[in-house]
Amino acid sequence: MSDLTKLTLADAVDGLKAKTFSSEELTQAFLGEIASANPTLNAYVEVTGEKALAQARASDAKLAKGEGGDLEGAPLGIKDLFCTEGVQTTAGSNMLRGFVPPYESTVTANLWRDGAVMLGKLNMDEFAMGSANETSAFGPVVNPWKAQGDDAQLTPGGSSGGSASAVAANLCLAATASDTGGSIRQPAAFTGTVGIKPTYGRASRFGMVAFASSLDQAGPITKTVKDSAILLKSMCSFDTKDSTSLDVPTPDWAASVGQSVKGLRIGVPAEYLIDGMPEEIKKLWEQGVEWLKAAGCEIVQISLPHTKYALPTYYIVAPAEASSNLARYDGMRFGHRAEEFTSLDDLYAASRAEGFGKEVQRRLTIGAYVLSAGFYDAYYVRALKVRRRIAEDFDNVWGKVDAILTPSTPSAAFKLGDKQIDPLTMYLNDVFTVTTNLAGLPGISVPAGLDSKGLPLGLQIIGKALDEDTVFKVAGAIEDAAGFVSKPAKWW
Amino acid sequence: MSANATILKGRTGDWEIVMGLEIHAQVASNSKLFSGAAVGFGAGPNEQVSLVDAGFPGMLPTLNRFCVEQAVKSGLGLRAQINLKSQFDRKNYFYPDLPTGYQISQLYHPIVGEGVVEVEAEDGTFFNVGIERLHLEQDAGKLIHDLSPTDSYVDLNRAGTALMEIVSRPHIRSPEQAVAYVKKIRTILMYLGTCDGDMEKGNLRADVNVSVCPVGNYDKFMETGDFGFLGTRCEIKNVNSFRFISQAINYEARRQIEIVEDGGKVDQETRLYDPTKGETRSMRSKEEAQDYRYFPDPDLLPLVLEQTWVDGLKASLPELPDDKRRRLMDQYGLSQYDAIVLISEQAKADYFEAAAKGRDAKLVSNWVTNEISARLAADNRDFSDNPLPAAHVAELVELIETGVISSKIAKEVFDYVWKGEGSPSEVVEKHGLKQVTDTGAIEKAVDDLIAANPDKAAAVAEKPQAIGWFVGQVMKATGGKANPAAVNHILKAKLGL
Question: Asn/Gln amidotransferase domain: from which residue to which, for each copy (chain B) (predicted)?
Fold first, then answer.
């Protein structure tokens, strides 16, 4: 029954409703795949087989009575950033190894409300800080894709590397992920999957281990645009437990996917054509423009002049918030605590030095630095001003365009270990994605083609705040035109 | 107590003290500032802690609307600017009583801005203290070190409780002024119901910033706004009673003067007051001062208030102490002193007003501020917890006014009433304490007295002030119930004066 794992979320939900197969069968199929693949791909940090089967049986009982929610019986993977009641939640860190929250994140609670089944917790960069899934305390995740004629293992991207790899390798129907600077869209692009970061405030951050509060948003990684629309709808809700949650209705986005994009005005920002961009990425972008033109869109050349400041701004704002958000990991109430210490300060220092990996420590140090007396105005306050300008750049073009088309990443998936030595090169991965986090806008990555080595590449569609509807429409059009059906050849 | 600035004599000249106070007042609220956890005194350790308070991963703060309302009311009570847009900031530092590693406070954009508080000194004069700001912030938990020789324990019940920090301008010039200022703030907050003012439980506490400067420099500072005219300040923490405030300031000012006169420099630092030794000692120097890395809390949106909402709160405010003082003086013809004593406690003023209706207000005020206040104090109670109905006081004063009892007998009547023997009229009836105004009875007593003391009666003609002895004797003979005016009149007639 391993074919079941190749189903899209939409088809699986339909099949479950039609009782073509049971949730238990489907869940068993995924657990089987995970058992064989995970030792190689390392996508899951914990597989919750028994819980999954119990949920599956409960779903089958509901389905048998013709009941059940939008995701009834659908086995999903959950990024280990979402707190799951009674199930270890680590955020990919030794700091939280063994931490079992007595509470459920709002996003996952919404999924269980709609009948989803949890297969397990997905690997990720430590505290979502990374673009290659190499900072995880549980080791790197491996991309199921390989370059033609090269056996080297590639990164699935990060920080939601586990989510992307699991979806691409059919280790779940779809997965939750989170995106602070590109952590959904970059891994989606690297693995030939679809990933959307919704408008800031659509998905509740309650129970999501925080990285940078003003940038963090949950979203799905899925096999198709429609699947993303379905899963995102379940994930989003207004939540009084999150002060930044938006009190807006969650539309039925799946209905938009496949609708005509005729007459939509699509912006192409000059500033995203960066120096050193691989020709293949440029070509793919041009191809995307042609596809949309052919589908009846009007193409508008636009300028987002502050784009070049987005990456430095992001690498001030995000570490600053992180340096404060991660202060709670002090060895006092939960998480790792050093066994040997000489004083209170030493206990803090030792616990955090042992519990946090190098990249987390680097960012916390940067964050503490940019907030410190004498530097606060020069770095943090200035970054907030630039952030406002970046948001205004978008505001200024929305009168002229309905959505914006850009590449998702400046490259295809690279080799594991390739960029570890140089954090700055690693940070460049986020160059096309951080702008939407800074501006709070929705952005989706859709697989649009393969590069010359046979690796997937993605295109990004950015929309107005709360206009995921248009984003899904355009993404659907790209998906249709690209006809991207490639899957990684199974080698694991 | 006076409103005058203290001048301290040093070896090299005269010095004055300049002070600014930071008052931390716990918001009267049933739940915490950013979580639904209960607030209360006396719960077991860590029984009033939510996952938000304990800083668990993924937990987020949500602002308690009632605490905001309380802060705005307090700001209105301080006649201060209400900022329709304010923002919460994080103050970052590590300590085991601070679970998230940061305190949510309002550094950059407080909810309440500039205001002025008029403070009355006990000599009846007034002085103004500028308010720089009032902001909302979280309290921390509590460390307990004495349960074990090797371990420290953390109680997070208090963690996340809402505090209002009220920061004054450096307009306070003497220990007496400092005390009067804290009392005034406390009274205002208690009138508003925004803080219970319980200093013993630490629900209202003050940090005092003290500096000294040569006499004359303060005026120059006030003229120019140049802090260079003032000395280096030290922040004194842990001054949790009126007595300690005064003692700590005196000690600290003397310490600073000695340093400066010895040619030294006062270090800007935080000092802790030790009430058992009566001295302040260094907690941390400026160099050791932490860099709190304040920045706007990204988990919380800016707090935006509607002017109409603020106006609604303003309209619902109770009468404030200053207004009450003026009204009591106008309406009841009370002296400023009496009015100030009455308004010091809202329940006391209310009690007075309840008893004073249609009665001699001055007389009622005397009873309330003297006898009843003293009895309550002796029983360790206050007016909110007063067992004596105001109607009894009104009745007692009525009995005096109508001449049914004398002021002297009234004290006796009050004793019985306080003991719970009934209303003043019942007590007068029961113990036969009615004043004798029947001239026949008084005349008989006078006649008997003169007959029994012919020599004394004769002497009165020579020495009229000796009539006092006769008055005393008649009062004694009538059990104190005779109307003193009638006794005087009859005595004078019978003794031929």
Answer: 350-495
pLDDT tens across A424-445, in order? Answer: 778 888 999 999 999 999 999 9
A131 is catalytic: no
A183 is known as an active-site residue? yes
For residues A270-277, give the mean pLDDT: 91
ipTM (interface pTM): 0.96
Of B287, B309, B278, nearest to B65 by C-alpha is B309
CB-based contact A333 B54, cutoff 8 Å: yes
> What CA–CA distance (Å, rounded) separates A245 from A227?
23
| pTM, two decimal places | 0.91
Q: Closest-CA residue in chain A for B151?
A: A344
Distance CA A106, CA A109 (A): 5
pLDDT in tens, B366-415: 999 999 999 999 999 989 889 999 999 999 999 999 888 888 889 999 99
Residue tagged active-site, from A22, A159, A178, A351: A159
Q: Among 2.60.40, 1.10.1740, 1.10.10, 2.30.30, what is the CATH number of B439-494? A: 1.10.10
Q: How far is A103 from chain B (nearest CA, A)?
A: 9
Say yes or no: domain A2-259 is CATH 3.90.1300.10.
yes
* A79 catalytic per annotation: yes
Residues of chain A with CATH 3.90.1300.10: 2-259
Interface of A with B (CB under 8 A): 82-83, 89, 91, 96, 99, 101-103, 105, 205-210, 212-214, 240-244, 320-321, 323-324, 326-328, 330, 332-334, 344-345, 348, 368, 371-373, 376, 380
Q: Within an 8 Å CB–CB cutoff, is residue B90 touching chain A? A: yes
Q: Is A262 helix (H, G, I), strand (E, B) or coil?
A: coil
How does strand A117-122 pair with strand A75-79?
A: parallel
Residue B130, φ and ψ in degrees, nearest 5? -75, 140
Put simply, whether B61 touches A (Cβ < 8 Å) is yes
